[in-house]
Every structure is written in C-alpha cells, then in structure tokens.
C-alpha cells in the first residue's frame, strides 16, 4: 500500500495503524494543507471540532473515521474526504457536520470542490449534515457502494447536490440509499450516473426516496475538461436498476425526474413523486420508449406546471435533454409503449 503521509502535508497526521485517537472540541485552523489526515488507521474520532481555512478539512485514506458535529469552513478543495486505494469496506460515519464554503483551487472536474467526497470506499454513512456553498457537489460518492446518504440539508451547490457515480472502468458503485434530504438552489439535484458504456464504471442498485429538491438551475461550468459546459438543471437522473419514489421537486430548469439517458436506461421504477414547475416534468429515455428489453415503470406521479410536457420521451443531445415527438403520457390510465409502462399518473 502506498505511503501517502509524506505526500499529504497536514496540520495533524495520524498513521501507522493508529487506533482510537479522539479529538474533541478542538480548533484546527489555517493550514496550507490538510487540517487532519488519517492514513491506514482505524477508529479516529473528530467530534465538535472547528476546522477553518485548509485545503481539505478531514482526509481519511485507507482508514476508518467518525466525523461528528464538526464545523468546517473555508476549504480550498474538499470538506471531508474518505478515500480508498481499492474498492473495499470502510464503514466511516460522517454525521451532524456543518460544512460551509468549498472551492476548487486544485482544479479538476469533480475531484475537488465537494463538501463530502467518497472514493472507492464501501459502507459510508453520510447523515444529518448541513452543507452550503460548494463549487461542485455537496456529497459525491465515486465507486464503492452500500452508502447511506440521508437527512442532509444542502444549499447552493454549483454542480449536482448529491452525485452517485462510477467514474471509471472498474470503479463500480453498487448499492446506495439517498433519502429524506433537503436540497435548494443547486445546479442539479440527485444524479446516479454511469452505465459502463463509455469507458466508465457501472453505478446501480440505488434507492432515491423522500427527498425535497427545489430551485434547480442550469449553471454554467466553464472549468477545463468539464462537459457538458453547464449542469442542464435536472432534479433527479437515474440510469439503471434504480427506484425513485416519493420525492418532491419544486422548480427545475429542465427535467424534474429523468428515467434513463439514451441507451443507458434499464430496470427503473418512478412512482409516487410530485413534480412542480419544471420545463419537462418526467422524462423517459426515448430508447426505452421505442425498444424492448429496458423495463421502465412510471406510475402514480403528479406533474404540475410543466411547460414543455408532463411525462414524455426524451433524448440527451450532449448539451441538454430534449423532448422527442408529441406524445405525452401524463394522463394515461394504463399504457405500455416499448419497454415502458405508464399508469395512473396525473399531469395538470
């Protein structure tokens, strides 16, 4: 295993298989590097501490931590990072923290600029945090899986508020519950991305339930290498093996809920959601509408005030999500088209 300690300048470094180290009610401030770096150790606890003005507040690498009720402000790259060299068990807990202000000084297309960044770790719990004003995502889970992302309050993210993805070949993400989060003023709401089609990994088996998402805007992101050059402004997007249930989306620049993206559309359930004031209420990949073998169910949803269509086929053009054709299934009682079953929805 790589020895990262010499490569990660830190105000506090915990390494060498250290166990059960506790920092309680401490002020850790003004480091040009990491506030607290934990490597190859277990049981480190940071509780009710103040981290101010670091590159990364708390960075756990091949370790296991508990970050509880801390205040983390003025980070230049990430708030809390939980990273692993390989996809393996972790079981870190990130709960009750206040994270405010995260920039992207080190650049990149999502490696930096996040409130909580999880990479290759398995079984991380991210609950009851308040995360405000971040350049990329409030919570970003890259690979691994079995995460619990619940009861977080998120405001003012330039990119997706909660990003669940498999960013590269072999970096898969399997299993995640994203529930009861409140998101407002975000570039996108909740994205579950990547289906192994374009040299990326496979992200699947995700439940998106009971979230409130409001004021989703199409934010420009002119950063080098970022594509498309804006967030598009979708509330929830899923691609395969996902359940989207009981969510409320109130105001989305483009699509309230998007089921599948072009050929990345398989085994999706979208039920019992309320979408208000979106350009497109619920979009379903036109690939699923016109071909068999995709298995999508859209039922029991209410769409109110969608200017470009209630429940309609869509195609991703590379820069935005567009409606296809004139069919609108928003008020169909029971209709099967291609791989999609529409039923008992209401479009007003």
Structural description of this entry:
The longest helix is centred in the C-terminal third of the chain and has 5 residues. The model has no long low-confidence stretch (mean pLDDT 96). Helices cover 1% and strands 57% of the residues. It has one helix and 34 strands. It is mainly β and 348 residues long. It has a 21-stranded mixed β-sheet that branches. It has one domain: Pectate Lyase C-like. The protein starts with 9 loop residues before the first strand and ends with a strand.
For the record, what CATH class applies?
Answer: Mainly Beta
Q: What class, by secondary structure content?
A: mainly beta
Count of all domains: 1
Overall radius of gyration: 20 Å
- Could you say what the CATH architecture is? 3 Solenoid
Low-confidence stretches: none
Looking at the chains present, what oligomeric state does this protein adopt?
single chain
Tell me the overall shape.
Answer: elongated
CATH-defined topology: Pectate Lyase C-like
* Span between termini: 58 Å
Can you count the beta strands?
Answer: 34
Query: Could you describe the largest sheet, including whether it forms a barrel?
Result: 21 strands, mixed
Output mean pLDDT. 96
Beta-strand residue fraction: over 45%
| Helical percentage | under 10%
Total DSSP helices? 1
Key words describing this protein structure:
348 residues; mainly beta; Pectate Lyase C-like; 13-stranded mixed sheet; 1% helix; 57% strand
